[in-house]
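Example (one chain per record):
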Amino acid sequence: MIPSLVFLITTALTTNMISSFVIQSSTKQSITTSKLTSPLFLSSTSSSSETTKDKQDVLPSSQWELDCYSRPVIVDGNKKLWEVLITDSTGTMKICETLPSNRVNSRELRRVIEEAIENAEIKPTQIRFFRGSMFNMMNIALQELSSDDITIIPSRCTYALFSWLQDRHKNVYPNMEGYKPTMMGAGGASAGGIGGDFLDIRTPVKLPDALRGEKYAFVSLPLAEFLPDTGSISTDNIGVGKLFKIDPTIENLSGDAFIQGIVVFSSRAKALASWLNGVELYGLKVDIRKRILIVEADITTQYLMARLNDEQREEGAAFEQGKKENNGLHFLCVQEGEDDDMPKGFWLLRENDSGM
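Predicted structure:
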């Protein structure tokens, strides 16, 4: 029998509480900080076109992820290498096609996507793309594909694509002739760096009062709890939400690492979890400079979850440092209270490198 995730979290919160305090805002909220160390947890070069299938024991998904962008490689004298990458949410299907720099347009992109769909074993029902700087071109290319059968979703929840890009930036592009690491940077997954950025001028939208939590807690869980062979966290005990596969060997994660997270306690937990499940939840960020806790969604949207005092700001800085040390991994858990049998929602999240 799978242990109750909420039971494990709340047991640790009540027995290993480090600090608690009140957030000054329109509604009374509190944030606590805790490391979850429950014994129950502790026991428990490329061609112009390339198509590959990995993980033959895993069927491709109908949820596709798309990118079209220049890479840090100069080709044909003084031209950027442009690639179209298409994968599915499991990373089983991978398609890479290069585009001549003078043919980077919505028509060519649509051609590549249509050919991929025609040849696909499992046709897409959703196509996500994350790159805001290419929004117009991608939106035009995908618009004619949008139908009752295919939904187009601007979203940074493209974890398989990010993993593939990370691998290519580490193992493929540096080995290509014309590689220019100084070309990496703009146009990446998210605006703003770890802990907030002076150039990030977005204004977070305030959460509706009906969706605000009464209490928040900074917590952490052992990485082992998220791994298929050792963990107890699965789709069977998280309520609504999302998990994705973590491979510690590829990601160079320590076996005894703790993943940072935030637990939200709310009497309206079900409504909050349902709302979060519908906004393409990307991640949580503590903006150290502005002293706020932010929910990141779709490509650029931010929601203000809470304001932080000086002490909470320090805990938020530790939360951000923990994300940085574990490749951006973190989580959000939503529940009504300590007596819940399971969360109303749980999301494993990843803040990705904005230089991709």
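Caption: Confidence is low (pLDDT under 50) at residues 6-29, 36-47, 186-199.
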